[in-house]
Amino acid sequence: MAFPRKERNYIRAEVVSNVSILTGEPCVSGTRVPAMTIVEELRAGEPLASIFSHYPSLPFDGVEAVRAWAETNGISLEPA
């Protein structure tokens, strides 16, 4: 007997600001991971596997959300 497939809704990660979470510092949605922390990791050349191991609550598309947010806000990901 086969089980019916369940459709799963997927909510994309994004960078959001909420004054009740880290006093409004931009974070990856659904986490308390500040976007600038991920930016700093990317600037340092950290591999994605390392970033995800440092922040296990980060969704699989969280880094891409931070990259898009940084580009939209003119934040460079190049080493300083």
Task: Write structural notes for this entry.
The protein is mostly helical and 80 residues long. It has one domain (15-72): Winged helix-like DNA-binding domain superfamily/Winged helix DNA-binding domain (Arc Repressor Mutant, subunit A), CATH 1.10.10. Helix content is 34%, strand content 5%. A two-stranded antiparallel ribbon has the order 1-2. Helix 1 (35-43) crosses helix 3 (62-72). The longest helix has 11 residues, at 62-72. The N and C termini lie far apart (58 Å). The mean pLDDT is 92.
Give keywords.
80 residues, mainly alpha, Arc Repressor Mutant, subunit A, globular, two-stranded antiparallel sheet
Protein topology:
Layout: E1 15-16, E2 27-28, H1 35-43, H2 48-54, H3 62-72
Antiparallel strand pairs: 1-2
Strand order of the largest sheet: 1-2
Count of runs of 4 or more consecutive helical residues? 3
Strand content: 5-15%
Radius of gyration over C-alpha positions, nearest whole angstrom:
15 Å
Name the poorly predicted regions.
none
The residue fraction in helices comes out at 25-40%
Count of beta strands: 2
CATH homologous group name:
Winged helix-like DNA-binding domain superfamily/Winged helix DNA-binding domain
How many discrete structural domains? 1
Give the ordered list of helices and strands: EEHHH
- Largest sheet composition: 2 strands, antiparallel
Mean pLDDT: 92
Structural class: mainly alpha
What characteristic shape results from the CA principal axes? globular
